[in-house]
Write a structure and sequence with these properties.
Length: 277
């Protein structure tokens, strides 16, 4: 015959469970919620959405665009985040001005109306990964180009208003870069790219630029806090890393006894409420 838990005991355990849950630190609860812009990528420390700066690290604020992509602003230029590797502390980004365009001609990319600017990084937080290429964009080039330079226009849409003239794209180590520069009187922009899909020319320019490049980030180490059951965050008042735990915020990691004690009490209350033998 099954032993029934007395009704009074169930009532007491239920109250205990609710009381313990109510004592869970609100910052811990807030940072425990999985955040995403809608594309399936998880936004976690050091990144944070604007509404929860305490769940991230300064300089890693994320906004969401209308397509559901996370957007990172670096020195007033927006970059779409395509992939985040939290284990390697690496993020793949691309210039939002180009990545968000929907050209009627899918075979080319408009670099005139949606101009790419030179990359400027907050060096205390982000750095380019090595072994990536540099794409040099030359603006306001002559419309009549020598035959050997025509291929550097491939994949680039012409500016209908001719405000930027003809645009050329070459990799930094291309032997024709110097000759091409003489044919262009406008700005020169250097855009990092992860892999250049061509043989020193404009082949695949749109795909390569939209694929973006890789950045490694630097922020407070989250591993000790996460392994202790906490949620990594930051105290803007003291400007220090914080580990948000079920009982309260801690400096680096949760107190195993207190954090586990809260969880154990909740588990016991729930188990007793549903128990039968």
């Amino acid at each position: 015959m099954k032993n029934q838990v007395p009704g009074f005991s169930v009532f007491i355990l239920c109250i205990l469970s609710r009381t313990v849950l109510a004592k869970v630190d609100p910052l811990y609860k807030a940072c425990s919620v999985r955040e995403t812009c809608g594309d399936g990528q998880t936004i976690a420390f050091p990144f944070y959405i604007r509404e929860k700066p305490f769940c991230g690290y300064p300089g890693f604020e994320i906004s969401c665009n209308s397509n559901g992509n996370p957007v990172l602003n670096l020195n007033n230029i927006d970059y779409i985040i395509h992939e985040i590797s939290y284990n390697n502390q690496v993020v793949r980004v691309s210039n939002a001005a180009v990545s968000e365009t929907n050209n009627s001609n899918a075979s080319c990319i408009d670099l005139s109306s949606h101009r790419i600017q030179n990359l400027s990084l907050p060096e205390d937080r982000f750095a380019l990964l090595s072994n990536q290429s540099e794409l040099v964009l030359l603006y306001n080039c002559n419309s009549s180009l020598p035959g050997e330079l025509l291929r550097y226009r491939n994949g680039i849409c012409e500016d209908k208003n001719k405000t930027a003239g003809t645009v050329l794209a070459l990799v930094r180590n291309d032997a024709n870069l110097e000759n091409a520069s003489r044919e262009c009187s406008g700005d020169q922009v250097v855009a990092p790219v992860d892999v250049y899909a061509g043989n020193g020319g404009g082949f695949g320019i749109g795909e390569v630029i939209k694929r973006g490049f890789l950045l490694r980030w630097t922020a407070s180490n989250c591993s000790d806090c996460a392994e202790s059951g906490g949620k990594c965050g930051f105290n803007g008042s003291t400007y220090h890393f914080k580990c948000f735990c079920p009982d309260r915020p801690h400096g680096l990691q949760c107190d195993p006894g207190k954090a586990n004690g809260l969880i154990t009490k909740v588990a016991v209350g729930n188990t007793a409420f549903n128990s039968s033998s």
